[in-house]
């Protein structure tokens, strides 16, 4: 059994910052790519940023230069530092991870989501 638990969402004013965390726990053998997605009301879920186990990153064009994804492999945790937040960043943010469990089975896991609201 594997769980992804997110934290760090909340209400912030435009131009402000938030840091999201997502910790994976359970019968984990290894974690490949970890990522953050978001879904705004009435819109499809979209990729925000991803990071491989080796530290290579990619970002959605809308967040390049404002968001930074990082990970701590020893803690099985991925972070998303969000700066210069805009109202259009308002969404539920989901953690995603490609995990191999101790039995050898590989699958993608999702967190429960954390709300980020950017508003004055």
Q: How many beta-strand runs?
A: 11
Question: Number of DSSP helices?
Answer: 0
Mean pLDDT: 97
Strand content: over 45%
Write up this protein.
The chain has 120 residues and is an all-beta fold. It has no helices and 11 strands. The chain has strands spanning 2-7, 10-12, 18-26, 28-39, 46-51, 57-59, 67-72, 77-82, 91-101, 106-110, 114-118. It is elongated.
Write the SSE topology:
Layout: E1 2-7, E2 10-12, E3 18-26, E4 28-39, E5 46-51, E6 57-59, E7 67-72, E8 77-82, E9 91-101, E10 106-110, E11 114-118
Parallel strand pairs: 2-11
Antiparallel strand pairs: 1-3, 3-8, 4-5, 4-9, 5-6, 7-8, 9-10, 9-11
Concise synopsis of the structure shown:
With 120 residues, the protein is mostly beta strands. Helices cover 0% and strands 60% of the residues.
Feature tags:
single chain, 7-stranded mixed β-sheet, 4-stranded antiparallel β-sheet, mainly beta, 120 residues, 60% strand
């Amino acid at each position: 059994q594997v769980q992804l638990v997110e934290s760090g969402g909340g209400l912030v004013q435009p131009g402000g910052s938030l840091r999201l965390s997502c910790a994976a726990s359970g019968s984990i053998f290894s974690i490949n790519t970890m990522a953050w997605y978001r879904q705004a009301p009435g819109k499809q879920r979209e990729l925000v940023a991803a990071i491989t186990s080796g530290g290579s990153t990619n970002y959605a064009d809308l967040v390049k230069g404002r968001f930074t994804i990082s990970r701590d492999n020893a803690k099985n945790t991925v972070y998303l530092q969000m700066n210069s937040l805009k109202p259009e960043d308002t969404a539920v943010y989901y953690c995603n991870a490609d995990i191999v469990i101790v039995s050898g089975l590989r699958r993608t896991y999702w967190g429960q989501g954390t709300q980020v609201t950017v508003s004055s």
